[in-house]
Amino acid sequence: MAVPRSRRAVVTSGIGTFIEGYDILLYGYLAGVLAQQFFPAADPAAALLNTFAIFAVGFVARPVGGLLFGHIGDRFGRRTALVSSILLIAGATLAIGLLPTYEQIGRMAPALLLACRLLQGLSIGGEYVGANILILEHAGPDRHGRAVSANQVASYLGAAAAAATSLLLTAALTSEQMTTWGWRLPFLAAVPLGVVVLYLRLRMPESPAVGRQVSPALPLAVAARTAKRGMLVFAGWLTMVTLGGFLLFGYMPTYLNRVVGLGPVAAFGVTLGGLAALAAGAIAGGYLVDRYPPRAVAIGSAFGVVVTIGPSFMLMQHGTVAAALAGQLAWAWCIGVGATVSALLSVTQFPAPIRYTATALAYNVTVVLLGGTAPYVSTWLVAHARTPLAPAGYLVAMALVALGTAIVGLRPGSRPHLGTHLGSFTVVRPAPQGESE
């Protein structure tokens, strides 16, 4: 029996998004070991800072990657862009696992590591956005939310897998084994999955929105002229989702360990609980936006973050595992709902000829400004405001921005659409999906 195209789109895109989530955070979780391998051992603090600086460069490259793959996706097809992005990210991740160390080649080692992170950043800039769009454009009527929510879950599972892999390796290997060869294993492990995704994507039917439209020669120029409002709405809503997500899987382990006082293993376990709540919220969001107007769901999720984040952070200060876990569940669930709403905005805010480019630009700029900086800014706020509740205030501010965006920027009754007009570019609504190939 042939597999429906919509389901194949979800599976093929989801595995790629899983790899993206894995690769984003794997470098960060192994930063301490990488610092020993790629920088002089004489100054460990400087080595760690340099390692994190290279980590940040990967985020800076994302908008460039978004524009590159957005252009490819709008001009030459979603599948072409996603095949290219998975080739690039798999190759860059493999290269990190095979790089010679500072002891072997000196200053060329960090330079090569930087080059690999730039390539990772470029590929990730187009991967997640393109995967969402491909799923949405293949989804059947009234199933957009449920289909794309699976891709959000795949991203969170990738982040959890990176954390779990790092923890297991640290527990299973001696310090000498980890620094000699163990750190290479998780980078090499991403390659077989990349090969599987490449095979599936080469066999994946193209999006039904491609080939039934006239694409502009320069999608970015058309997006800048016609989609400024949509990109501002997308970015405004994404402020809460981006900051909340990166606080959960990028900052919470450190916060729970150093500020709340939990042990490293307990902090990791609680963070996994928060990721589970995030995933559950994304799934719930999929059902909600398929049944109710996305604007109403967006307002509800943003309001939920505003009212729960303060009490949740206060609860975490009790210093027990139960309190720390309970202190993440409510607002993490709301962020998950908001993540599905943000994915859906691609098809409510942008017409198909510029959808990939406009979404990638708005998404990646927001991630660079708020996502990549979330751990640093939160740490700075705790130190200078002298209160452990400072990150909660930061997220409340962004949730209020998102709430205002939902109220003012999202049109009442707006639903996902695949057919629209863009100046001289006419897009034909494709036939209902869900049929077998």
Note the topology.
Elements lengths: L4 H25 L1 H8 L5 H17 L1 H15 L1 H21 L3 H4 L2 H31 L5 H29 L2 H6 L4 H19 L15 H8 L1 H33 L3 H28 L2 H23 L4 H29 L5 H17 L2 H12 L4 H20 L11 E2 L2 E2 L11
Antiparallel strand pairs: 1-2
Report mean pLDDT, rounded to a whole number: 85
Largest sheet, described in full?
2 strands, antiparallel
The CATH topology assignment is Growth Hormone, Chain: A
Order of helices and strands: HHHHHHHHHHHHHHHHHHEE
The number of helical runs is 18
Shape: globular
For the largest sheet, list the strands in their spatial order.
1-2
Terminal-residue CA separation = 10 Å
Structural class: mainly alpha
Unreliable spans = 419-437
Beta fraction: under 5%
Looking at this protein, list some descriptive labels.
Growth Hormone, Chain: A, single chain, 2 strands, 437 residues, 18 helices
Structure notes:
With 437 residues, this protein is mostly helical. The chain has a single domain (5-422), classed as MFS general substrate transporter like domains (Growth Hormone, Chain: A, Up-down Bundle), CATH 1.20.1250.20. It is 79% helix and 1% strand. It has a two-stranded antiparallel ribbon with strand order 1-2. Helix 12 (228-260) runs antiparallel to helix 15 (321-349). Residues 419-437 have low confidence and may be disordered.
